[in-house]
Model the fold of this input.
Amino acid sequence: MQLEGRVAIVTGAGSGIGKAIALRFAREGARIVAADIAPDRAETVAGEIVAGGGEAVGLGADVGSPEDAARIVASAVERFGRVDILCNNAGIMDRMAPAAETPIDLWERVLRVNLTGPFLLCREALPLMLRQGGGVIINIASVGGLQGGRAGAAYTASKHGLIGLTKNIAFMYAPQRIRCNAICPGPVQTAIGLGGEPNAFGLSRMQLGATLMPRIAQPEEIAAVALFLASDEASFVNGAVVVADGGWTAY
Done:
């Protein structure tokens, strides 16, 4: 098993990509802290892992809260004694709203979950990884972090920022054997939705390129990429942005 004995935190673990990553990591021997804004979903995923013979704890938490970010990491240490892998997966959409039509509360909410949340978790986990002599951080970004026409202004800005944060952490802590990489999925069959009634203008602009989309991925396909990045097989992969979009951005 590729992650035998390691401890992994997965945010947004209650459904979709996060759930697939938590289950895949657990099958490879990792002990899991499954965090989600919905406590019942987090506990259900943890229960599924335990029922399969693994070790896991489910935790309801808001990643955009400094207190909850600290609690997630503290729970991992209290239960399992360390943190080897942090997977920042939790994220929300922005209704495809363009900049001129993005309310400030929507902007702040999307940035708080999609960018501030990963920063807070990294800030809590990095001191532990430094003391342990290494660790792995995986940030789930998006093709929306590479291009300008895959989402609204807030989501696009948040995922571009997350890629920048990924590269900065990778460079800063490389000598301390801490790797930080980002995955940029294309469309994935999840329950994330658009975050509400879509903005008609923003959606119409985004759909101009939607016809080039090869297909929609399953969450397990993104989990397979995350497993590689978390494992020793990726020991020389640091600061990378791995695109998993079926070739959508290759055009």
